[in-house]
Fold this sequence. Notes:
By secondary structure, the chain is an alpha/beta fold. Helices cover 38% and strands 15% of the residues.
Amino acid sequence: MKNLRRYDKNEISAVSKVIKEGKYLSGFTTKFHGGEEVQKFEKEFAKYIGTKYALTFNSGTSALYVAISSIIEYGKKNRKIKTNPDVHIPAYTFTADASATLQSGGKIIFEDVDEKTFCMLPPNKKSSISIPTHLLGNCSSSMNYDNTNFLIEDCCQALGTTLRGKKVGSFGDFSVFSFQETKHITTLGEGGMICSNNEELIDIAAHIRNHAEYYSSKPYLGYNYRMTESQAAFGRVQLKKLPKILKMLSSNAKLVMKKLPNGIEFPYISKHVMHSFLIIGCTYNKNIVGVSREKFLEKLTKNRKHILQQDEKSDIKGINMKSGKLISKGYAVPLYDIPAYKKFKPKGGCSNVEKIISKSLWMDIHRFRSKNEISEEMDILNETVKEFQK
C-alpha cells in the first residue's frame, strides 16, 4: 500500500474554499445549526457510525462534558437520575473522563478494567452513568451495560473499531469522538463529535454547545463549544480517507506483530472485534527480556536517537504528525493516584489497572509510516532486546 500522508492537497483545497468564501462560522442562529460544512460533516459522520444524529464540537473533552451534562439535565427532567449522579469510569484512561465528570457535577466511581483488552469492566451494581473507554482502538468483547441508566461510549481512541460488525459509538445513549491531531482523523488539530439516536438528548447538547442560558433561555448553562467551518471542511476530507487510514494502520500493525521480539507481547483482540490500532498496546515481560522496562526504554531511546532526531530538523516541535514515533510505558498511574482524583480512590484500588501499568508498553511506530521505516524500528527493538539477553 502506498504510504499515506497525514493530509494533502484535498484538505488544503477544502479549507481554502472556506477562506475564499468568508464563511468561517456561518449558520450562527440562536440555536447554531452550523454552516454548510459543519452540517454536512455531522450528517456524514452520523451515517458512518450508524446513528441518527451527530453534533460537532471544538474538542473531544468539550464533547465529553456536554454528553454528561446533557444526560444529567435529561435525567432530572425525567426523574431517572439525581442531580449529582455517580459516573462510572475506568481508572485506566485519559484524564478527560474524570475532569468532565467533576465539571458536570457528577461523582467519580472508578472501575477496574479487563486485563487483556485494557477496557472497562461493566459495574457490578446499578449505576446512573457509565463511560467505558474503547482504549487504543480496542473494544471490550462485551458491551453488557444493562445495569446502567445511561451509557456514554468514549470512542476518542477508537474511530472505526467494530464489535460483531457494529461500529463502536452506536451502542450507547451518547458516544464521544476526538479529532485531536494524534487521533485517526483530525479537524485541524482539535475537534470532537457526539453521536446519539436520542433526539431530546441531542437537542439539549446542541443548546449547551451554544450558550443555552442566553440564546435559548434554558435553565442550564451553555458555553461556546462550536466547531468552525474550516475545521469541518478539513474533517470531511479526512473522513473520506478513513477506510484507507484504517487499512494502513491494520496492515502496519500486523507487520509490527510479526516482528515483535520474545518478551514483548501483542495486545489481545477478541475474534468479535475489529481493532482500529490507534496505538499498539503491548505488554512487557521483564523476566524474559532480562531488565526492567524503564532501563529497557532508556536503552531503546538511545538506539533510536537517529530516528528521533529527524523530527528536531522539522518545523514541528513535539509530536510529529506525519508519523508516529512514540514508544513508552503508556499511562503512568491510575487516575485515582492523580492528586485531583485521590479522594475517589476505591478501597484496595483496581488490581488489573495496577498490573497493566506495571508492564504496559505502548507502541506508536506504525501510523503514517512506510514499511521500511517500521522494519527499521523493529530491527532496533529486536537488537535492543538481544543486548540484554546476551
